[in-house]
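Final report, results section. Input specification for complex C-07:
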Amino acid sequence: MAVNYSTPAPDLLYPVPGVELGPAQAGIKKPGRHDLLVVRLAPGSRVAGVFTQNRFCAAPVLVCREHLARVAKSGGSIRALVVNTGNANAGTGEPGLRDARATCAGLAALLGCAPHEVLPFSTGVIMEPLPIERLLAGLPRGVAALAGNAWPLAAQTIMTTDTIAKAASRRVAAGGATVTVTGISKGAGMIQPNMATMLGFVATDAPIAQDVLEQLVREVAAESFNRITIDGDTSTNDSFVLISTGQAAMPGIASRDHPPYAAVKDAICDVAQELAQAIVRDGEGATKFITVTVEGGRDAAECDRIARQIAHSPLVKTAFFASDANLGRIVCAVGNGGPADLDTSRVDIHLDDVAIVLRGGRAPSYREEDGARIMKQSEMTVRVSLGRGGAAATIWTCDLSHEYVSINADYRS
Amino acid sequence: MAVNYSTPAPDLLYPVPGVELGPAQAGIKKPGRHDLLVVRLAPGSRVAGVFTQNRFCAAPVLVCREHLARVAKSGGSIRALVVNTGNANAGTGEPGLRDARATCAGLAALLGCAPHEVLPFSTGVIMEPLPIERLLAGLPRGVAALAGNAWPLAAQTIMTTDTIAKAASRRVAAGGATVTVTGISKGAGMIQPNMATMLGFVATDAPIAQDVLEQLVREVAAESFNRITIDGDTSTNDSFVLISTGQAAMPGIASRDHPPYAAVKDAICDVAQELAQAIVRDGEGATKFITVTVEGGRDAAECDRIARQIAHSPLVKTAFFASDANLGRIVCAVGNGGPADLDTSRVDIHLDDVAIVLRGGRAPSYREEDGARIMKQSEMTVRVSLGRGGAAATIWTCDLSHEYVSINADYRS
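Structure output:
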């Protein structure tokens, strides 16, 4: 099967010194499909992650948290990641935890490290037992395939209902060296990340101190993966991991005040936003990419609530799918998400450059054909001005189409 | 066009002494369609209502609140209701308010009462100017049609995308008299009532004191219309009104301790629940009626949050549509809606009588074919036990089908 990529030239994804990727076929998802990924990190690499806030979080998420905490305490380092698709190992209770630990132990034995130096990740159907024998049997094939330039096949390996393999890469001058940032992600459905997306991995060779990396992974998630929503469902497996191999020839970034920090952070944010937006563009059944910006709020939280209310409204999403300028539905969503003391007579709403609502009522200049023209585009921006402060928030989302219903009605069959 | 009714024998809807209904064609929705309803109440009737919490509430909702407050202050009484379909008069700013007031003044002149003794209601497309001339021209036809037995056509008149006219009726012995309770409602989309549903009107001839009626309308809404959700969108126009004409031959109900209160309240709750459930059964594109009960919580609020998270999840709803026992999606929704300190190892989930999840993991006895058997039914119950207290909450909802997308992608065309 030919796979398209979110990046124009997938073969030009820059390898990150210190990172090797080993995609393999383990027969977990379906025969003949790469569904298992081993990632080996050079000694001394630092890793920080953020994970789902879902209370039923998956077994691999629990094990990731445990291993990261243990490494932080003992001063060791994470040496490998292992990712399977086709099965989420969530809602699987104690047996699921045992399987996630067995996966780490299996890979650790092959790589000669400790089991707690391995982080496990799973994505796929919830509440099915993990086919642990097939997974363990696939690990040697993943290790045999390890290569620094395997990012494109790695992006393809972690796909579930994704139709596009998601990868992004940047090179930037910082601290007298050329720093590389490369990442992959997967999404498609059950997407409203809360702290992190379904699966996102970004690696850089810039040397970044552990405490700086911990803070950075949170800030980057907040500006990228946590700003997208497809269907408002936060999955049990969301994980976003930032890796610093430290192999770039530059002084270590020990604090946020260190001059190269800004350039490195910008490159990482760029890659993470590109990966996050690629998830929305490839959302289940998505035909449109919609940026929702709410500004003029008292604080970012109230802007964020309204933006999500718009982005989650099935009525707004179906109107976008139909290219129907039924824009009263956006008004309704603003009214549902707004604070109790919202003065609606100060609210303006624009669709791209077209004023729809001015001072809480239909804009006198608004003509239906102007709205219809914008709605027909494949990308557009909804901008809501609250007129009560200087805060703003942006959410990226997609429409709700027949295809979304088809995909999710038939997902397992 | 033949219209089906939610009640088996619509001609047997009991008239409520003191209530006359006048359905008319005003050409607001489309030619040849009843779209305007006048309701005349006998002198001395008492009215209490609850309205949408949407901050962009519609002009008629603002006017209803204003008129009810004025009547409460001046000791007058509400003498009439006027309802149009085809246009919500919401997001229409100052002109919309003027139109709602003009509607009340027009009907008041015809009926010989004060404008503030009329309550206006609108339902339909948001952000379109109300066709006030056609509405005013239709009022005399509504008044000419006034009759006590016009409940069936009244139910049909207020429909928008509803496919079933919703009406319910009860007679009950109370205080030595036979008390009648009859009501109508409309729903279909943009349905997650917050204090009240899109439009619901319930009338009784039981004499109920104003303060008792005010409390009763809130309690009844909380146990009926506020327990349903179709798509999680709370409309700009939700209104639920309870009318007491006081014409039953019994002593007035001056307090909740008055013996006939319980029987009257039960009859009103029965009618309201039947109307609310009829809205879910006729939800846009709905093919299944699903009761979600969450029990064993510390308080009702946490149970309600989890029940709504399940009821709103597009992934859960599409699985029900497909009769696909992809029950991990329910687990995921529970994890999203649950409190931060939820101990998932105490959570059980049943689908009707089939145990799906026991102590946080897949139930050992669970067989896919048992889940599939229940999922094929047109009605079913999801029961989640949290194992952390004695509180419970129930939500009624429906599935998410292709037809929902079609209806809402094409609504205005």
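Residues 363 and 397 of chain B are 25 Å apart (CA to CA). The first strand of chain B starts at residue 4 and ends at 5. This concludes the modelling results for the funded period.
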